[in-house]
Amino acid sequence: MDEAVGILREGRSRPQQRIGKAAKDFLTEVDLASEAAMKRALAASTPEIGFYGEEGGGAALDSGRVWVADPLDGTINYATGSPLCGVMLGLLEDGVPVLGVIDLPFLGVRVDSGAVVDVDAFDQAIIGMGDAFHRGGARMDAYLELTMTTHRRALRFRCVGAASVLWVWLVGGQIQGMLLAHNNPYDVVAGHAIARAAGAVCTDYAGAPLTLASAGAMAAVPGIQSELVSLAADLAEVAASGE
Predict the structure, then answer these.
(1) What is the pLDDT of residues 158-207, one digit of tens each?
(2) pLDDT at residue 15 above 90?
(3) Closest by Cα among 241, 217, 225, 117 to 172
(4) SS3 for 20?
(5) CA torsion sign, 118 to 100 to 112 to 146?
(6) What is the reported pTM?
(7) Quick one: which of 97, 109, 141 has its CA closest to 235?
(8) Fewer Cβ neighbours under 10 Å: the N or C end of the chain?
């Protein structure tokens, strides 16, 4: 983790070449260098544990012990000078998140534990939502409708372009709920492990326990979890249909 964080900090001083990845998405040389450093260090220190990274993939996730890494979460934020980005590392045991650490290098924060700050009602809660840039069709429409509804009903709304920041804020009490437009393991495993231990309820959009197979990920403090699930009902239906 320390070497990866150092690579992010050092890379910030120079322009980054943008390497096309998908529609409206890219990675940089820093993503690749950070992941290579994490993979190399973990292979040396824990050779018996598999590795899976956002950029290079790796070991199967559903059995044994596997490190799951996001070497640079919030790449577009990083590349455009925003401090809202991080490095994430989680550990799976037979597909279940058991350990996580998240470092936000430009905010000076590293967490591997925390404690949520519960509230009694949705209008007392601050809710964070991930970008929906990579989704289209009925699922994206449902996600954007949920975004608007949440914005209207919550105390405040946050969209920062980095799952790492949302997980850190949830376990630190700065927000009370979060939703992602996906369930990518590199964006979820570390945060899931930390948030669950910190008192958050981590589920899919329908309120079922969050697993690697879930169609989407969300987490909330106990006081608003049931209402958040209710608000996400249309999104849950669309996600379950595979549209």
Answers:
(1) 999 999 999 999 999 999 999 999 999 999 999 999 999 999 999 999 99
(2) no
(3) 117
(4) strand
(5) negative
(6) 0.94
(7) 141
(8) C
Instruction: Decide if 69 contacts 50 (C-beta within 8 A).
Output: no
Tell me which H or E stretch contains 5: helix 2-11
Please tell us whether the domain made up of 122-241 is placed in CATH 3.40.190.80: yes
Using CA atoms of 109, 148, 82, 173 in order, give the dihedral in degrees to the nearest 10. Answer: -10
Give the tokens for residue 94: 């037979």
Tell whether the model's pLDDT for residue 21 goes beyond 80: no
* Block residue for tokens 């096309």: 20
DSSP 207: S
Q: Where are the domains of the chain?
A: 2-111, 122-241
Architecture of domain 2-111: 2-Layer Sandwich (3.30)
N residues, the chain: 243
With 70 as the cut, is the pLDDT of residue 31 above it?
A: yes
Residue type for position 209: P
